[in-house]
Design goal:
alpha+beta; Immunoglobulin-like; 2 domains; 9 strands; 22% helix; TAT_signal; signal; Thiosulfate oxidation carrier protein SoxY; SoxY; SoxY_sf
Protein backbone atom coordinates (compact mmCIF):
# COMPACT_ATOMS: atom_id res chain seq x y z
CA UNK A 1 0.00 0.00 0.00
CA UNK A 2 1.30 3.41 -0.93
CA UNK A 3 1.42 6.27 1.54
CA UNK A 4 -1.13 8.24 -0.48
CA UNK A 5 -3.58 5.31 -0.40
CA UNK A 6 -3.13 4.95 3.35
CA UNK A 7 -3.91 8.64 3.87
CA UNK A 8 -7.03 8.44 1.68
CA UNK A 9 -8.25 5.39 3.59
CA UNK A 10 -7.59 7.06 6.93
CA UNK A 11 -9.55 10.15 5.87
CA UNK A 12 -12.43 7.96 4.71
CA UNK A 13 -12.53 6.07 8.02
CA UNK A 14 -12.42 9.35 9.98
CA UNK A 15 -15.32 10.68 7.89
CA UNK A 16 -17.38 7.57 8.58
CA UNK A 17 -16.65 7.80 12.31
CA UNK A 18 -17.69 11.46 12.34
CA UNK A 19 -20.90 10.68 10.47
CA UNK A 20 -21.71 7.96 12.97
CA UNK A 21 -21.08 10.35 15.87
CA UNK A 22 -18.16 8.29 17.16
CA UNK A 23 -15.58 11.11 17.08
CA UNK A 24 -15.59 13.16 20.29
CA UNK A 25 -16.35 16.83 19.70
CA UNK A 26 -13.32 17.67 21.84
CA UNK A 27 -11.16 16.38 18.99
CA UNK A 28 -12.57 19.12 16.76
CA UNK A 29 -12.82 21.86 19.42
CA UNK A 30 -9.31 23.23 18.83
CA UNK A 31 -10.16 24.27 15.26
CA UNK A 32 -11.58 27.79 15.10
CA UNK A 33 -12.55 28.51 11.48
CA UNK A 34 -13.06 32.25 12.00
CA UNK A 35 -9.58 32.57 13.55
CA UNK A 36 -7.92 30.69 10.68
CA UNK A 37 -9.86 32.77 8.13
CA UNK A 38 -8.87 36.09 9.77
CA UNK A 39 -6.79 38.49 7.68
CA UNK A 40 -5.13 40.57 10.46
CA UNK A 41 -3.56 39.99 13.85
CA UNK A 42 -6.37 41.98 15.52
CA UNK A 43 -9.01 39.85 13.78
CA UNK A 44 -7.32 36.63 14.97
CA UNK A 45 -7.29 37.88 18.57
CA UNK A 46 -10.96 38.90 18.31
CA UNK A 47 -11.96 35.51 16.86
CA UNK A 48 -10.20 33.77 19.76
CA UNK A 49 -11.75 36.06 22.37
CA UNK A 50 -8.36 37.31 23.51
CA UNK A 51 -7.15 40.77 24.45
CA UNK A 52 -4.76 42.73 22.24
CA UNK A 53 -1.34 41.09 22.62
CA UNK A 54 1.40 42.73 24.67
CA UNK A 55 5.10 42.19 23.91
CA UNK A 56 6.82 39.91 26.44
CA UNK A 57 10.35 38.64 27.04
CA UNK A 58 8.75 35.38 28.29
CA UNK A 59 7.60 34.46 24.77
CA UNK A 60 10.18 33.22 22.27
CA UNK A 61 9.91 33.08 18.49
CA UNK A 62 12.30 30.88 16.53
CA UNK A 63 12.52 31.95 12.89
CA UNK A 64 15.27 32.54 10.35
CA UNK A 65 16.33 36.09 9.47
CA UNK A 66 16.23 35.15 5.80
CA UNK A 67 14.16 32.33 4.31
CA UNK A 68 15.67 31.18 1.03
CA UNK A 69 12.59 29.07 0.27
CA UNK A 70 9.33 30.71 1.33
CA UNK A 71 7.47 27.43 0.79
CA UNK A 72 8.97 25.76 3.89
CA UNK A 73 10.04 28.18 6.59
CA UNK A 74 10.78 26.62 10.01
CA UNK A 75 9.00 28.52 12.80
CA UNK A 76 8.80 27.90 16.52
CA UNK A 77 6.91 29.36 19.46
CA UNK A 78 7.72 28.85 23.13
CA UNK A 79 6.96 30.47 26.47
CA UNK A 80 7.82 30.19 30.14
CA UNK A 81 4.61 31.95 31.20
CA UNK A 82 2.30 30.06 33.60
CA UNK A 83 -1.32 29.13 32.75
CA UNK A 84 -0.86 29.16 28.98
CA UNK A 85 -3.78 27.54 27.15
CA UNK A 86 -2.75 28.17 23.55
CA UNK A 87 0.29 29.09 21.46
CA UNK A 88 -0.13 30.74 18.06
CA UNK A 89 2.11 31.46 15.12
CA UNK A 90 0.94 34.40 12.99
CA UNK A 91 2.34 35.71 9.70
CA UNK A 92 1.16 39.25 9.13
CA UNK A 93 1.30 39.41 5.30
CA UNK A 94 0.01 35.91 4.54
CA UNK A 95 -3.49 35.64 3.03
CA UNK A 96 -4.58 33.99 6.29
CA UNK A 97 -2.68 35.41 9.25
CA UNK A 98 -3.04 32.45 11.64
CA UNK A 99 -0.57 29.79 10.52
CA UNK A 100 -0.62 27.42 13.51
CA UNK A 101 -2.46 27.00 16.79
CA UNK A 102 -1.27 24.67 19.54
CA UNK A 103 -3.47 23.86 22.53
CA UNK A 104 -1.51 23.27 25.71
CA UNK A 105 -1.97 22.76 29.44
CA UNK A 106 0.15 22.53 32.59
CA UNK A 107 1.25 18.97 31.68
CA UNK A 108 2.94 20.15 28.46
CA UNK A 109 5.88 22.41 27.77
CA UNK A 110 4.62 25.29 25.65
CA UNK A 111 7.34 24.77 23.05
CA UNK A 112 6.29 24.01 19.46
CA UNK A 113 7.94 23.88 16.03
CA UNK A 114 6.33 23.76 12.59
CA UNK A 115 6.97 24.75 9.00
CA UNK A 116 4.92 27.37 7.20
CA UNK A 117 4.64 28.99 3.81
CA UNK A 118 5.47 32.69 3.62
CA UNK A 119 4.39 34.34 0.40
CA UNK A 120 6.56 37.41 1.01
CA UNK A 121 8.76 39.07 3.62
CA UNK A 122 6.67 39.68 6.73
CA UNK A 123 6.55 40.12 10.46
CA UNK A 124 6.03 36.78 12.20
CA UNK A 125 4.52 36.55 15.68
CA UNK A 126 4.57 33.92 18.42
CA UNK A 127 1.60 34.55 20.71
CA UNK A 128 0.86 32.94 24.08
CA UNK A 129 -2.77 33.03 25.24
CA UNK A 130 -3.35 32.52 28.96
CA UNK A 131 -6.36 31.06 30.76
CA UNK A 132 -7.44 34.56 31.87
CA UNK A 133 -7.68 35.85 28.26
CA UNK A 134 -4.41 37.78 28.16
CA UNK A 135 -2.11 37.57 25.14
CA UNK A 136 1.66 38.01 25.03
CA UNK A 137 3.86 38.02 21.92
CA UNK A 138 7.32 38.02 20.41
CA UNK A 139 7.86 39.35 16.88
CA UNK A 140 10.51 39.03 14.19
CA UNK A 141 10.75 40.11 10.57
CA UNK A 142 11.51 37.24 8.21
CA UNK A 143 12.79 38.19 4.76
CA UNK A 144 11.84 35.83 1.95
CA UNK A 145 14.17 35.70 -1.05
CA UNK A 146 13.01 34.80 -4.54
CA UNK A 147 14.47 31.54 -5.74
CA UNK A 148 17.10 31.64 -3.02
CA UNK A 149 19.10 34.33 -4.86
CA UNK A 150 18.28 37.29 -2.65
CA UNK A 151 16.33 39.06 -5.41
Amino acid sequence: MKRRDALKNSAAVFGLLMAAGLVPQAALAAYNKSAFDAKTVADVMKALGAAAPVESKDVTLTAPDIAENGAVVPLGAATTLPNVKQMLILVEKNPNTLVASFVTNEALDANFMTRAKLGQSSDVYAVALTNDGKAFFAKKEVKVTLGGCGG
